[in-house]
Design goal:
about 270 residues, two-stranded antiparallel ribbon, alpha/beta, 8-stranded mixed sheet, single chain
């Protein structure tokens, strides 16, 4: 485990990436001594009305051609750094055919599959949690990820499985394997059998209004036990200051759980080093 790659970053091509650019974040990765950075800009093909009300957004499909042209330019400036072309595709049942069309129309180094919106709500703005206890809210989110990622199949990294815990109003601010072992086992078997990566998204493990989610060691141990090999580190950065955030800490955490190599992707091919 010699070089670390930040496999989840947002740039000026994401709706919420105005504080970042491909070049400034790539230079931050080089300065931090990372082996590479992947730009997985947001592509959610439906925005819930309640989110649009708060943020005045239309569907978040970024200009893929422009992003990839800019990545090519920055690669020429930083030849010692791997700068990769990615996408964070927002999984939503109502957009399945649109999602397939986007992925088939473009080439990427990495496709990250994530869930941001469900039940016509956005957890960031709180609507998703109304009328649910913590176990129902977290469990339904995990089940939605599993249903949509197994439908899609065409992805490399399962993104931020614990996104739903970041913004939750409950005292239970972390997701533990013991509480959702059945759905986690199904997820992990699928990822392991299909050579896909489980993401450690370091943005989750910071203070949110006095609550700090933690990564349950048993999640990584069980993934390993079920045959999982690929752990992907992602900062989920939206500004260059967060590129590679806490990577040494979580690389060591993964190593302590038996993962001696970490994953990144080039031209959709899994690389472990």
């Amino acid at each position: 485990m010699t070089r670390l790659y930040d496999n989840h970053n947002h740039s000026q091509f994401s709706f919420d990436g105005k504080l970042a650019s491909v070049e400034t974040s790539a230079r931050a990765a080089a300065a931090a001594g990372l082996g590479g950075i992947c730009f997985t800009d947001h592509c959610d093909l439906y925005v819930p009305a309640m989110k649009a009300e708060h943020e005045n957004l239309v569907p978040e499909q970024f200009d893929i051609k422009a992003q990839q042209t800019e990545i090519d330019r920055v690669r020429g400036l930083l030849p010692g750094l791997s700068v990769s072309k990615g996408i964070e595709i927002g999984l939503q049942k109502r957009c399945r055919e649109q999602i397939r069309a986007v992925l088939s129309a473009h080439g990427f180094d990495q496709v990250t599959a994530s869930v941001h919106y469900l039940e016509d709500t956005d957890p960031f703005w709180g609507g998703y949690y109304k009328g649910k206890d913590w176990k129902t809210a977290y469990g339904h989110y995990l089940e939605t990820i599993y249903e949509e990622m197994t439908w899609l199949g065409d992805f490399d990294v399962m993104g931020h499985f614990d996104y739903v815990a970041r913004y939750a109003p409950y005292p239970q601010c972390s997701i533990f394997y013991r509480d959702f072992h059945d759905i986690f086992d199904s997820m992990f078997k699928y990822l392991a059998e299909n050579g896909k990566a489980l993401e450690i998204n370091t943005k989750t493990y910071q203070d949110y209004h006095g609550r700090t989610p933690v990564l349950d060691r048993n999640i990584l141990l069980r993934f390993k036990e079920l045959g999982g090999e690929a752990i992907s580190l992602g900062s989920d950065s939206h500004n260059p200051e967060r590129v590679g955030d806490k990577f040494r800490e979580y690389a060591e955490f993964a190593r302590s759980c038996g993962f001696t190599r970490l994953a990144h992707f080039e031209n959709r091919k899994l690389i472990l080093e």
